[in-house]
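hey
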C-alpha cells in the first residue's frame, strides 16, 4: 500500500499548488465555485467538457494540464473535472466510488498533491461534509498497494500522489465522520494484506501470530494449537490439516464494546482459513492453482472486521473465530473414503478432499457455539466454485436460517456495494449428502446445486435457536482488474459489508 498518502480536510479555497479537482454533476454541470473559476478562465472548462463529451457521469474524469489564467492565489498545475453523476443518486457508496476515481486518475500522474473543491449541489442527500468524508474513504480504499515483494518498478507505475485535501465547509464535521471510516479502511487493508500474502509466508502459524498482534488494538486473542485441537476432538479440521507439514491453528478474537449489554451473548463471525488449498489427494489442476493462496479470504475478512470494530470502538460484543489449515497431498494426507469425527460428534465420510473448507468450518462453528454461546453466527468462506458459476463476481451467495437476518445482510450489501444474493436452504437437498457408513458425506454424488449442498452441510453444525448465515465469497474475494475502490487483487469482500451490518442492525437498535 501507499503508507505515505494523507487525507485532510480544510476550509474552502483554491490550492496554492498541485492538482485542483472540480466536481461536475451530470444533471447540473459545474458548481458555483467551478462556474466562477470557469469565468476567470474565459470559459475554458465548459469548452473542454464539450470537446471531450464530458457529461459528469459518476467517476468520469477529465484532466487539463498547465491551465493558464488561474487567479493569483492559485498555482495548480492541472485541473481535474470529476463526475458526480446525478445528484439525487449521490449516496455514501457512490460518493466513495467517486473518491476512488480521484486516486485512479492521479496516483501515478506525477502530481504529488490534490485538492478537491467540495461543493453542495441541489438534490444531494448528503451534506458537502458528509460527501467529502465518504469520498476520502473511497480514495483511501483505492490507494492500497501490495508491493512489498517488488524490487523494481517502472517509473510511470510508481505512485507520486501523497496528499489529498478536501476543501469543504465544516471541515471538522467531515474529519469526525472520516475518523470512523478510516478505522474501517484499516480493517480492509489488514484483510487485503493477509489475502495477498503468498502461502509460503502466511502459514497457519504465521497467520495466528498476526492475529496476536491485534491485542494492541483492544482485542483479546486466544490461539489453540495442534495439541489443543486434538485434545478437544476437532477431527474434521485436523483431518484436513494432517497432510501438511504446517500444523493447524484455531484463533478466537474477542471484542467487548458493550460490557453492560442486556444480552451478554456475543455476535459471532467465523472464517474459513485454508492458507493454501492444493485440493489434497483430490488434487486440483495445475492451471490457476496459485490463486489458492487466497482460500483463507473468509478468515481474512473476519480478522479485518474485528480490527475495524475495535478500531472504531463499536458498541457491540463480538467474537471472531478463524480455522487455519493448509490442505496438501502427502503420505499422511486424508484420503477419499476416510471417516472423521467432528467436534460436534457427528461423523463425516470424506468423498472429496478438495471439499475441505466445510470440514474446517464444521469444527469452527461447533467451537464458537460451545465456547461463546452466541445468539447469531455468520460464517464467511470461499466455499464453492459453484457459487461463481451461479453469480459470477458481482454478488456473493447468502444462505440463512432466519429471514430478518438475511434481509439485514442484503441491505448492508446494498449500502456498501458488497452485494449478496440469497439462495435457498431446503431439507430436500439433504438426501444428497447421506452416507452409507457415516452421518453424512462432505459432497454429493453429482455437481448439482453445489453451493447449496455446501450450505446444507454447514447447517448441520448449527444448534437449534441460533440465528445463522453463511456467505460464500468464492467469486468476489479477488478482482482480476482495477475497480472503483479496489486495485487488482484482494477485495477484502465482507469487511465493509459486515461492519455496516453491525452499525445498522445492532448499534442503531
Amino acid at each position: 500500500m501507499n503508507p505515505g498518502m494523507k487525507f485532510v480536510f480544510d476550509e474552502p479555497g483554491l490550492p496554492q499548488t498541485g492538482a485542483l479537482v472540480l466536481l461536475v454533476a451530470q444533471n447540473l454541470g459545474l458548481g458555483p465555485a467551478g462556474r466562477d473559476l470557469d469565468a476567470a478562465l474565459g470559459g475554458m472548462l465548459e469548452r473542454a467538457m464539450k470537446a471531450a463529451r464530458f457529461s459528469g457521469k459518476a467517476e468520469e474524469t477529465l484532466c487539463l494540464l498547465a491551465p493558464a489564467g488561474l487567479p493569483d492565489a492559485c498555482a495548480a498545475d492541472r485541473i481535474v473535472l470529476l463526475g458526480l453523476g446525478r445528484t439525487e443518486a449521490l449516496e455514501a457508496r457512490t460518493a466513495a466510488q467517486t473518491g476512488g476515481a480521484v486516486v485512479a486518475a492521479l496516483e501515478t500522474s506525477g502530481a504529488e498533491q490534490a485538492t478537491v473543491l467540495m461543493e453542495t449541489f441541489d438534490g444531494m442527500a448528503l451534506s458537502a461534509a458528509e460527501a467529502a468524508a465518504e469520498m476520502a474513504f473511497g480514495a483511501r480504499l483505492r490507494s492500497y498497494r501490495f508491493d512489498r515483494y517488488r524490487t523494481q518498478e517502472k517509473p510511470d507505475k510508481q505512485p507520486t500522489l501523497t496528499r489529498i485535501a478536501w476543501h469543504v465547509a465544516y471541515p471538522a464535521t467531515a474529519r469526525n465522520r472520516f475518523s470512523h471510516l478510516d478505522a474501517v479502511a484499516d480493517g480492509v487493508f489488514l484483510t487485503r494484506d493477509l489475502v495477498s500474502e503468498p502461502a509460503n509466508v502466511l502459514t497457519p502459524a504465521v497467520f495466528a501470530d498476526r492475529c496476536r498482534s491485534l491485542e494492541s488494538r483492544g482485542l483479546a486473542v486466544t490461539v489453540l494449537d495442534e495439541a489443543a485441537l486434538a485434545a478437544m476432538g476437532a477431527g474434521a479440521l485436523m483431518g484436513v490439516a494432517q497432510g501438511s507439514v504446517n500444523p493447524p491453528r484455531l484463533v478466537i478474537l474477542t471484542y467487548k464494546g458493550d460490557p453492560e449489554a442486556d444480552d451478554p451473548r456475543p455476535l459471532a463471525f467465523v472464517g474459513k482459513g485454508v492458507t493454501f488449498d492444493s485440493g489434497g489427494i483430490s488434487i486440483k489442476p495445475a492451471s490457476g492453482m496459485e490463486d489458492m493462496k487466497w482460500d483463507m479470504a473468509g478468515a481474512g475478512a473476519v480478522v479485518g472486521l474485528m480490527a475495524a470494530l475495535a478500531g472504531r470502538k463499536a458498541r457491540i460484543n463480538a467474537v471472531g473465530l478463524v480455522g487455519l489449515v493448509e490442505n496438501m497431498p502427502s503420505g499422511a494426507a486424508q484420503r477419499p473414503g476416510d471417516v472423521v469425527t467432528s467436534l460436534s460428534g457427528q461423523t463425516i465420510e470424506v468423498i472429496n478432499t478438495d471439499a475441505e473448507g466445510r470440514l474446517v468450518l464444521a469444527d469452527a462453528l461447533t467451537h464458537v457455539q460451545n465456547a461463546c454461546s452466541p445468539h447469531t453466527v455468520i460464517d464467511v468462506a470461499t466455499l464453492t466454485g459453484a457459487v461463481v458459476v451461479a453469480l459470477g463476481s458481482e454478488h456473493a451467495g447468502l444462505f440463512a436460517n432466519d429471514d430478518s437476518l438475511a434481509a439485514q445482510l442484503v441491505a448492508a450489501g446494498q449500502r456498501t456495494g458488497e452485494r449478496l444474493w440469497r439462495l435457498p436452504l431446503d431439507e430436500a437437498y439433504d438426501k444428497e449428502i447421506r452416507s452409507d457408513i457415516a452421518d453424512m458425506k462432505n459432497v454429493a454424488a453429482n455437481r448439482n446445486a453445489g453451493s447449496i449442498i455446501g450450505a446444507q452441510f454447514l447447517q448441520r453444525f448449527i444448534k437449534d435457536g441460533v440465528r445463522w448465515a453463511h456467505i460464500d465469497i468464492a467469486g468476489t474475494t479477488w478482482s482480476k482488474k482495477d475497480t472503483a475502490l479496489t486495485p487488482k487483487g484482494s477485495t477484502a469482500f465482507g469487511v465493509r459489508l459486515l461492519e455496516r451490518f453491525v452499525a445498522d442492525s445492532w448499534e442503531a437498535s
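The first helix runs from residue 32 to 40. The radius of gyration is 25 Å.
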